[in-house]
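**User:** Here is a favour to ask of a fellow structure person. Please take any protein you like and set down a full record of it. No explanation is needed for now; the record alone will do.

**Assistant:**
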Amino acid sequence: MPEKNLWILAEERPKREVIAQILYKFAKENEIACFIDTIRILPILNEQRRFTFLYEVIGFRSNKINKIFLKIVSGYSSFVDYLVFYQDNEPTETDIPLYAIEETKTDDSESRNTGVFQRASKFVFVEYYYPNTRKIMLYNLKIPQKETPTDTYVFGTRCLLTLGVEILGKKLDPNVFRTFSTIEELIESKNSMKKPPDGNVPILIDKQGDIIKISGRLIKSNSLAHDPNIGALSLIAATLRKLGWKGKIIITKHGLEQNHIKPSNKFIKIANMLNIEIQDLKIPKITKIENYWKYETESEKLGTIFIHTVVENFSNGEAIFENHAGCEKGYFITKDGTPIPLEKYADRDAYKKGDKSKIINIPDLILIDFGRCEIINIEGKKYEFRHKAIEDLNNFEEIEKRYIKKYYAKHKIIRTVVLYGGHEKKAVEVEIGFLLNEDGDLVLGIKPPGLFKDAIKNLVDFWFS
C-alpha cells in the first residue's frame, strides 16, 4: 500500500477508545505493521494560534499511514457516527469512504430497541449513497454484555448481518446470530416473537402473493417520528429486498394521516429508496436526494466538543458526563468509575400529566478538575443564543442534587457557558467560560474555570513553545 493519510469524519464527539479500534481494524485488515500507543486527539492550531477545525490523531505509527486527521461533520438526514477515508487530500462529498461506522454504548440489557432497531435506519440510508462501503456496528460497551440476548436483539442483528453489516465489540454466538437464508425464514422469525402488551401494535409480516404487508405504528407526538419502529420497519424492508423480494411492501396499522407525510422525513426518503408503500397514503416521489454529509460549521457542538477534547488531552481533568448537541447521551461516571444512566424526570407521572417542571435538565458537558476538586457544569450554545445559555444555567439544581452532590460531595460545583460562533474576540458576560468563534479564535472568559485556562495554555504551548 502507498503511504496516504487516514481521514476520520465524525458526527459524534470522537472517543479515543473508538479511534483506537478503528485504527486497529484498518491495520489488521490491510496487514499493516504498526504500533498503537496512547491515542490522543490534538486540535491543530495555525500560525495565528487559531483553531483550524481540524484534529490530528497521534499515538499510532505505521509506514503505510502518513498522518491521521479528524474533522467534525453533520449528516443531512440519518447519518452514521464515523466515515473513514484512506487518501491524501481532505475528503469531499463525492469521495467514497472505506468504512461507515455506527457506534453505540447501549446493550439490549438497557434497551432492546436503542441497541439495534433505532440505529438500523442509518445503515439502510448509507447503503443508498455508498453501496460498496463496509458497514460496521461498533459496540463501545460501558456495562457488561447481557448473557442471554433478547429476541428483538437477535432478530435485528440477524437482519443487519444479512445486509452485510459487521458487528464489532460484542461476542456473538454463531449458532444464534446467522444471516437469514430465505424470505420465509425471516417472516417466521419475526412473527414467532413475543407480542407486545395489549394496546400496542405488534410488528408482524404478512405475505400474500406478490404483496408483503408489515404492521407497525409510526405515529408519535402527532408526527411521523416513532424512531424505534422507523428503524425496525426500514431494516425489515431492506432485508426483504436483499433476500430478493421484488413485489410490493406495504406498511399497515401505522396511525398516520396524509398531513404527516413530509418529503424531508427520513422514513419517507427510505420509502423512496426501497419502494415501500404506506397503506391508504400517498408517498411523494423524491427525485433528488441531497448529499449524505457536510462539514459542520454552525452547531454549538463545535465549541463543547473542542473544550472536551482539549481538557481530555491537555489537562488534569476529564468528562464525567457528555450530551453534546445531536450526539448520543453518555453515562454519568461516579467517583468510583461506575457508569450510570441519568433519569429523565424528577417525577415521571407528574411530567406525563403536564407538569413540565418535573423534567431533569442536564448540562451538555460535565467536567471534573481533579487538582482543584471542582465539578464544572457546562451549557453549550451558539454565540447568538448566549443569553439563553446563561439563563439555562439556573436549571441544573436537580441534577446537582441527585447526582453530583451524592457522588462528589466534597467537590465545589461551577456552572459555566461554552459558546461557538460569531467573530467576537472577547466574552463580556462573566458566566461565559469559553468561546470558540467562527475564525477559530480561542477566547477565554473574564473568570473562566481554572481547568479551561490550564487546557488552553497547554494546547498553545504544545504547538508554539
Q: What stands out?
A: The two ends are 36 Å apart (CA to CA). The first helix runs from residue 16 to 29. Residues 301-464 form one domain.
